[in-house]
Design a protein that fits this description.
By secondary structure, this protein is α/β, with parallel strands linked by helices. The strands form three sheets. It has a seven-stranded mixed β-sheet, with helices on both faces. Strands 10-11-12 form a three-stranded antiparallel β-sheet. Strands 8-9 form a two-stranded antiparallel sheet. Strand 2, helix 4 and strand 3 form a beta-alpha-beta unit. It is globular, with a radius of gyration of 21 Å. The chain binds pyridoxal-5'-phosphate. The site of pyridoxal-5'-phosphate has 14 residues, from helix 3 and helix 4.
């Protein structure tokens, strides 16, 4: 079977993990700060806090920014549910901003319109979470300009986008955001099994991210409510969680990040090859022509609206090609419908979803496998005309 995404684990990755297993620390040892430094060096950002998943990174990011009951958090409907759930964990209200039909990212013009309306109603968001869908960066400069005007904070959901570039910085550098979040699930760009991280340039936010990662407990004397406490002393100064990454996972991450640029170059070559192979088919490839670099987590094509997507999907699955669909709009989920969202609320995300199919995309996909994907797609598109 050819999956839509998969990890690439090398012998050096395996050796790195085994080394930790033979060492003194399986968790809370030296591998976690080493991984954090590798990420902050790569992204050119001041601080990195590694956590157990991108979902927990989003949660601690919202907590660090003080999101609470009565606040609003806005994100894109074209994302995994975790980008919105993190707001609900904090008791906040969720809303979505429709996508741009060309980039499939949150639409900046729609965001501005919605902000003007929310301003008039006194319901401005505290946090906006742009999602770099498929690894393609959002227009962060414009979103940042709006945040300055309307006073909201920004968390970039870069679960798809470690290694991607804005025109002037790496994703994760937080040039135009408060915090950036990564996922290291095996289908994503690099993996630690489960795992995530949050980056920031703000020392206070970094301190709060690590506080919420570990029960709200601190050993930092300057944060305690008394001076001269004994050396064994720690204090719980807020309500946090156990969202720690293990050293076993972190060691895998340190090894994986070494190949990150090769990984993205391989994805880019495969994407250009897909573009060529698809050029005579009635499908719309993702646009790679913009200022910056996509991490190419996904390669999503749009079928023609007269093509029966289910038929194409089922056929490819039967042929052992595990295509997928990213994403069912979050507001379609029964849980979000129970909060009052309806089909029709975000028409661009809905129209995009109707015709989307993610073709296999990962560094160790061979050109032979890629040819197999395309020849099967070609067959079924011919038959489902
Ligand atoms: C995968 C993903 C997440 C959640 O990542 P985990 O590490 O599995 O918690 C969040 N947002 C987006 C956009 C994702 O693709």
């Amino acid at each position: 079977m050819i999956p839509y995404a998969r990890q690439n684990i090398t012998n050096s990755d395996i050796e790195a993990v085994v080394k930790v297993l033979r060492s003194d620390f399986l968790t809370q040892g030296p591998a976690v700060p080493t991984f954090e430094k590798a990420i902050s060096d790569y992204c050119k950002v001041n601080y990195c806090v590694a956590v157990s998943s991108a979902t927990s990174a989003l949660h601690v990011a919202c907590l660090a920014l003080g999101l609470k009951s009565g606040d609003w958090l806005w994100t894109s409907p074209n994302t995994f549910v975790a980008s919105a759930n993190c707001g609900l964990y904090c008791g906040a209200n969720i809303d979505f901003v429709d996508i741009n039909p060309d980039t499939y990212n949150l639409c900046v013009e729609a965001l501005e319109k919605k902000l003007i309306k929310a301003d008039a109603e006194g319901k401005l968001p505290k946090i906006v979470i742009p999602v770099h869908f498929a690894g393609r960066p959002c227009d962060m400069k414009k979103i940042y300009a709006l945040s300055q005007r309307y006073g909201f904070r920004i968390i970039e959901d870069a679960s798809h986008a470690i290694g991607a570039d804005l025109p002037s910085s790496k994703i994760g550098a937080c040039e135009y955001s408060d915090i950036t979040v990564f996922s290291f699930h095996p289908v994503k760009i690099i993996t630690t099994g489960e795992g995530g991280a949050a980056t920031t340039n703000d020392a206070v936010l970094a301190e709060r991210l690590s506080l919420f990662r570990s029960h709200g407990v601190t050993r930092n004397r300057s944060l305690m409510d008394q001076e001269g406490l004994p050396d064994w002393y720690y204090q719980q100064i807020d309500l946090g969680y156990n969202y720690r990454l293990t050293d076993i996972q972190a060691a895998l991450g340190v090894s994986q990040i070494k190949t990150l640029d090769d990984n993205i170059n391989q994805r880019t070559q495969l994407a250009y090859r897909y573009d060529e192979l698809l050029s005579d088919l009635n499908v719309k490839p993702p646009s790679l022509d913009f200022n910056g670099r996509s991490a190419l987590h996904l390669y999503v094509i749009q079928l023609n609206s007269s093509t029966d997507r289910k038929n194409v999907f089922d056929y490819l699955r039967r042929k052992g090609i595990a295509v997928n669909v990213h994403y069912i709009p979050v507001h379609y989920q029964p849980f979000y419908q129970s909060l009052g969202f309806k089909v029709g609320d975000f028409p661009n995300a809905e129209a995009y979803y109707e015709n989307a199919i993610s073709l296999p995309m990962y560094p160790i996909l061979t050109t032979k496998q890629q040819d197999e994907v395309i020849s099967n797609l070609r067959k079924i598109l011919h038959f489902s005309k």
